Structure formats: structure tokens, C-alpha cells
Fold TatD-related deoxyribonuclease.
Amino acid sequence: MIDSHAHLDFDDFDHDRTQLFADMKRQGISSAILPGVSSRHWSKQLTIAAQYDCYYALGIHPWFCPDNIETEVAALAQLIELNRKDNKLVAVGECGLDKRHKQRAFSTQVALLERQLQLAISHQLPVILHSVRAHNELLGLLKCYPNPKGGVIHGFYGGPELAKAYIALGYKLGVGGLIMDPKAKKLRETVAQLAPDSFLIETDSPNMTPINAVNSRNSPLNIPSFVAEIAFLQNKSTVSILEQLDENVAQLFEL
Ligand SMILES: [Zn+2]
């Protein structure tokens, strides 16, 4: 198993990261993809990825959208260029749009995302996308900038129709801890109805702590319970879902 989206480089894991990776290995969680969030975080992210042999993506999260995007985008382009031959660099992201986050004008978030979508296309990398209350705008941009490598809408929470719109454009849906919440009806309907090759499994650690989290926090150790829940909703065996999810992540990110 691979956690397709975990911020294991964040300070929250500084006190027990080595122990956590040992526990992950024992549970069959072999690795994780560490998404990039901002220029301030890249250096530590790359250090942790190298130290623990993790995959990573490079990008600027909309929560860290700078006032002037040009300097940050130039730094990102340079870093991707520098690391492009590293087979642990698997995507551009996480990038996207978040209407709940109002610190920057939405138009600046859009401009920042456009630049990252272009970078992904020119470097032939898939994208890891964050989208909160901005699905129409995101779908529009993904149509404007078609990426043959596709990508993932991480932390997906929508219903089957929205899911199908993304899948039609070649994107997968990242399913995380929200699946454990019986109140997440739309997402549970999506997971029950769509073909299992549409999904990736992720935790978004340390954010989005699920119901009944292992050690009361969000970490990749919660992945097995998410897989079991997807298998239950799909009415399939855990083993077959596990195999499919492994295949999905390997195919999208060319692992
Ligand atoms: Zn994230």
C-alpha cells in the first residue's frame, strides 16, 4: 500500500517520524507521496523524502498563494527542472483552488494554478489538485490545459456526477478519511457507484483526522481502514480493492 497524499514532512511528525515509518512498514504501507506546498517547505520536504525514500511532488498550495506569484513560480520551475530526472519526483502539486481560503484574491489563485498546470504539461508530469468549492472553475481550467498524464483530485468529497466530470477529463479521485464518516453521503455514493479504477487512497496527514483514527491522529496508519471501507462500499473483497488501488497509483504516477 502507498499513501498517495501525506504531508509527512510537516512539523507534526518531527517527534516520531522514524517510528511512524517503521510502523507503516510493519502494516504493509510501503511508501507515501509527499506533496509540495510552498517554497518555504520544499527544502525540508526534499530532505525528508530522501531520508525515508518517499515519492514527492513539487508545487504551491493555494493556501500558500503569494501576493506576487512570479518569483515563486520561477523558483518552482527551477526546482522541477533540477529534480526532473529523479524518479521519486512524480507530479506537480499540490496546487488548486480554494474558495474557503480568502487571504488571496481568487484571481491570483487561478493565475497560480494556470502556471502550475502549464509546468506539469511541459514536464510531462501528472498534477495533484486541491479543490474546495471551486469545481466548476477547476473543470474549466483542466479543459483549457489538457494534460495527457492526468492527475488526481485529492481529498475528493463530491457526488457521482462531479466525479464523472473529472474522470471524463482523465483524472482520478483521491479518497481519504472522509469515507469513514457515515454523514459523507455524496462521497460514499460516489465510491459505491464508480469503477474502482477511478480512485486513489490517501490520508492527507496530518490534516483531515478521520473518525476512529489510529492513535487519535491522522497518519498513513489509517490507510487499511479506508481500504476496508471502500471494499465494503464496492461490495468487493479487500484484497481485490487493494490490488486495484495499488495498480491505480502506480499507473498514474508511473511508480
Ligand atoms: Zn494536502
Summary: The chain has a mean pLDDT of 96.
